[in-house]
Design a protein that fits this description.
With about 110 residues, this protein is mainly beta. The chain has one helix spanning about 40-45, and strands at about 5-10, 15, 15-20, 25-30, 55, 60, 65-70, 75, 90-95. The protein has one domain. The chain contains 1 helix and 9 strands; from the N terminus they run E-E-E-E-H-E-E-E-E-E.
Length: about 110
């Protein structure tokens, strides 16, 4: 995913969910300790469609939906409902089974 998702340069604002670089790390910055955020909220901020049938402008079939993997395990249901938690590894695939899920990610210290 690209750097700068969640940044409004003109308004000099940063959303609660954002990317600061192209590493794929989603940062959460909220005033409330009890805030819960989902993958779907991040994709909304990114303005990219995320449903079982669509990943952005790509359309799958009902037999071969968009795949979401959390810490290497496939998640069934609505892909946008995945809750974001610290150091969670999420892979979103188009046509599951045709793309390899990354084996893991070494988060930088302090993230």
């Amino acid at each position: 995913m690209p750097a700068g998702v969640g940044f409004d340069a003109r308004g000099r604002l940063i959303a609660a969910l954002y990317t600061s670089d192209a590493s794929g790390i989603i940062h959460v910055d909220s005033d409330s300790d009890g805030s819960v955020f989902t993958l779907g909220q991040f994709f909304d901020e990114w303005q990219v469609t995320l449903t079982p049938e669509y990943l952005g402008g790509l359309r799958t079939s009902r037999h071969d939906p968009v795949g979401v993997y959390v810490n290497g395990a496939r998640v069934d249901g609505q892909p946008g409902s995945v809750m974001l938690t610290p150091h969670q590894e999420i892979a979103v695939t188009y046509r599951p089974g045709t793309a390899a899920v990354p084996p893991g990610y070494a988060f930088p210290a302090g993230t």
